[in-house]
Amino acid sequence: MRNINVETIRSVERAVHILNCFSFERPSLSIEEIVAKTKLAKATVYRLLWTLETQGLIHYDQKENLYRLGYKMLEYGGIVLENLDMRREAEPFLHELQAQTGYTVLFAVRQQDSLQYLIRLDSDDSFQPRSYIGRRRVLHYGALGTTIMAYLPEEEVKAIIEKHPLEAHTPNTIVDERKFMERLHTIRSDGFFVDKDETFIGFTAVAAPVFDRTGIIGAIGLAGATFKMMKSLPELIRQTVGTAQHISKRLGHIAHYPS
Distance between CA atoms of 60 and 49, rounded to whole angstroms? Predict the structure, then answer.
């Protein structure tokens, strides 16, 4: 983000705070919940919600007496996605990877201290990762986030962990900072990461980094049931790494890859 000497407009800032209250976990909120989250006066929240509603950014469900994001937000999201070169360049390769393997395919990019999912191609399995398109998570979350972290400067990694401490998602998750740093060195050396039962029990993900001309920008991954993926793990790693390399080359990354 640019660093310019201009003060923000307070009313716009408050409106954005309201929009930021909504999430995949809490897509619908009452006005009382929004007031509690924003710490704004109820009258102020009501006026802002009404203004956002008139512009299609907020939808009010009269039956449930709840607010949710309006369909105009979907239009904005579509405009962003349509104009992301990395998404357009990556999508054909990811469809091919999904067709070859049959597993769920994910593509996520770094957004400062967080990870955001851009593409998700589902398998036919009943259990799917909760990695919805547009969802943001702390950067060290799961296989894709950990892979991205492996290619950041060590000081930057430590600063992110200090701000967002490592969290145990299963008994197998590494939460010791020293061991986590060792893992990042291994990922950087191997060029891939396998998350086996660390984010979800019974669920494995294989991830590989994606670069553009400036450096690391994201990661792609395969995800599926552990008992299935372990049967052909070396081949799945090879396919994931190869796909990540093809995408990186399309995005302008210059490196020596095997032909």
Answer: 9
